[in-house]
C-alpha cells in the first residue's frame, strides 16, 4: 500500500508498540515510585474490579508469560495481596483474586492511572478517545488466542466473523 510514511511509521504493530511504550513509561515511573514493579502493577490492575480469573488469562492480560506470573503470585500471595482458589466447576483449575490488602495497595494507583489516561487522551477529545478504545478492544478480541476469556464487551466475537 503506497504511503508517504517510512515503513515503521505506517506499520500498525510498530505504531502500537511505540505508543504503548511511550505512554506506559510515563506511568511506570509513578508505579515504581510507589514500590511496585511494572508486572506487579499489571497483575493487580488486571485483578482490580474483576472476579477471580485463571492464571493463563491473568498472564495474557498482564502481558507476561505464565511461569513468570506464577512465580510473582507466590510472592504476592505471601504479601497478602492476592489469593488462589480452586474453580468450583473444575478443581484442577487455579483461580486468582485480589485481597482487600491488594485492593488497598493499588487504590491510589488506579486513581493516578485514570488521571494519567485522561491527560494522554485529552488532546484527542472524548469522541476520538472513545473510538480509539473501541477499535483497540476489537483488535485485541480478533487476535486473542482461543483459550482465553470471552471478548471484552462491545468487541466482536472472533468466531462470529
From TrEMBL:
Protein name, UniProt field: DNA-binding MarR family transcriptional regulator
PANTHER family, A to Z: TRANSCRIPTIONAL REGULATOR, MARR, TRANSCRIPTIONAL REPRESSOR OF EMRAB OPERON
Residue ranges annotated for the HTH marR-type domain, each copy included: 9-141
Keywords carried by this UniProt record: DNA-binding, Transcription, Transcription regulation
Single GO term (MF): DNA binding
Gene source species: Variovorax guangxiensis
Native organism taxonomy: Bacteria, Pseudomonadati, Pseudomonadota, Betaproteobacteria, Burkholderiales
SMART domains with a match to the protein in the record: HTH_MARR
Entry annotated with the keyword DNA-binding: yes
One Pfam family linked to the record: MarR
Amino acid at each position: 500500500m503506497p504511503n508517504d510514511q517510512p515503513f515503521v511509521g505506517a506499520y500498525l504493530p510498530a505504531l502500537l508498540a511505540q505508543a504503548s511504550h511511550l505512554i506506559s513509561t510515563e506511568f511506570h515511573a509513578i508505579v515504581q515510585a510507589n514500590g511496585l514493579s511494572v508486572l506487579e502493577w499489571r497483575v493487580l490492575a488486571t485483578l482490580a474490579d474483576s472476579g477471580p480469573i485463571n492464571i493463563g488469562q491473568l498472564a495474557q492480560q498482564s502481558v507476561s508469560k505464565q511461569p513468570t506470573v506464577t512465580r510473582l503470585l507466590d510472592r504476592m500471595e505471601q504479601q497478602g495481596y492476592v489469593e488462589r482458589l480452586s474453580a468450583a466447576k473444575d478443581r484442577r483449575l487455579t483461580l486468582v483474586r485480589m485481597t482487600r490488602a491488594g485492593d488497598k495497595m493499588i487504590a491510589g494507583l488506579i486513581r493516578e492511572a485514570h488521571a494519567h489516561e485522561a491527560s494522554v487522551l485529552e488532546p484527542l477529545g472524548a469522541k476520538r478517545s472513545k473510538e480509539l478504545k473501541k477499535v483497540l478492544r476489537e483488535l485485541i478480541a480478533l487476535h486473542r488466542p482461543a483459550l482465553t476469556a470471552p471478548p471484552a464487551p462491545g468487541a466482536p466475537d472472533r468466531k462470529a466473523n
